[in-house]
Structures are given as structure tokens and as C-alpha cells.
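Same chain as my last thread, 264 residues:
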Amino acid sequence: MQNEVLATKREKTGSAEARRLRKAGKLPAVIYNNKGESKLIQVVMHDFERMLHHHTSENLIVDVVVDGQPLGKALLKEVQHDPVTGSLVHVDLVEISMTQKLRVNIAITPVGQPVGVEAGGIMEQVLRYLEVECLPADLVEDFKVDVGHLKIGDSLLVRDLTVGEKYHVLTNGALAVIAVAQPKEEEEATPEAAAAAEGAAEPEVIAKGKKEEEGEGAEGAAPDAKGAKGGKEAAGAAKGGEAKPAAAKGGKEAAGAAKGGKKG
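reply #2:
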């Protein structure tokens, strides 16, 4: 199937213009030549999405036609998606020569069921892309890797992969690609161990509750201090209230003295 991108030139730039284009069903794009020069273009969103749906990889070589004029072969360098909706936002293309090698990242696809997984192990894919150099005509959507022979504890390194002579691997050969790990065994807790664990946890809960109570007390320290001041004043007032009977006693003595003076 031929991948053809029909584009038109665009003059305006900026995020507002890009939003306007997407709202009108157009996808903003930029195409670069081998000199690093760029050209602003736009493509029909629906047509571009339909083309991508026929491929599992976005490493595609396309024929670009701008305003009816064939521009040549180009590689989809980057396809940007909205992080929330997943819809297309922007596309970068770069002109290529079919006789010049490309540096690209090609997906790694595991094939088969490791014997280690059947024995209870867990397969982990550590590396998902392989960086290689190849001619445009040799570009593939993924490298399929047989993992059926991997046992628990085994790992497949980059240098173990067989990708063919057409590809020069640039990724570090010592990196792990696939590994089959030993599952972590969960020890069943005995009733005694569960009771011991529960008992050990109780002091922490109590201590935490005590700390929270202390925290609440600290938060209420200011009102308490104010209340203490008020209490002191109240105590003083109460003490002053107790002095009234003493004053009354003094009045009684004064009354007695006055009576004695009258008698004299």
C-alpha cells in the first residue's frame, strides 16, 4: 500500500493558529530537508489518521505532495499526540534519499511464552526499542524476538538478538531486553504470628493516638493559656469576694466601738 501525504503550504505559525487548523480538520506539520531547512505545511487530519491506522509503527516512509507538486520521499520523524485525548497534534517529516542510511528506533516484540513463565516466573520487557541504522527500503515496523526458551533467572541481552545483516545495531549490547524473574513468595501468616503482629502494632496506634492528643493540646495551648489568665482573674475575684465577710467583721467591731462610745 502506497503511503501518500497530500499537503498544502501554510504561512502562519503559533499555538492559536495551530488550534484553529485542528478545529478546521487540518493537521499542522513541518518537513525538513537534508540541509536542515524547514517548510510549513498542513494535511487533512482524517486522511493522515486513516493512514496511521494501517500500521503498528509510526516509522513510515511516505510520498509527499505539496500543492500538487511531488516533493519526494520523507520519513515520519515525530508524531505528536495530545496527552489527554490521544488525538494528533503535530507532525514532523524529514526528506530522505533511498540510497542513504537512516538512524531509527524500531520496536521489539516478544514472541512465544517463556518456559520460565509456565513454571511460575514473571516475564519483564526491560527494553522496548532498538536503535539501528539501515536503508529506507529495509525499514520494518518491529523486530520479533523468540522468548520461548527463557527459564526463570534467564535474560536476553541486546547482543543476543538476531536482526540481520541489513541492520547496524547502535544500542549498547550489554543492555537487557527481556528477563524472566523469580516470583516473590508471600509467606502465609500463622495465627500466632498474626496475633504477635497485631500486638506489636498496638503500641504504635496508642502512641500515635497519644501524640495526636498532645498535638491537639498544643493547638489548644493558646486558648488554654488565655483561659488560665481568666481563671487567675476569676480566682482573684473570688478571693476578693471572700474578703467581704472580713470587711463585714470589721464593720461589726466598728459598730461595737461606736456603741461603747455612746455608752461612755
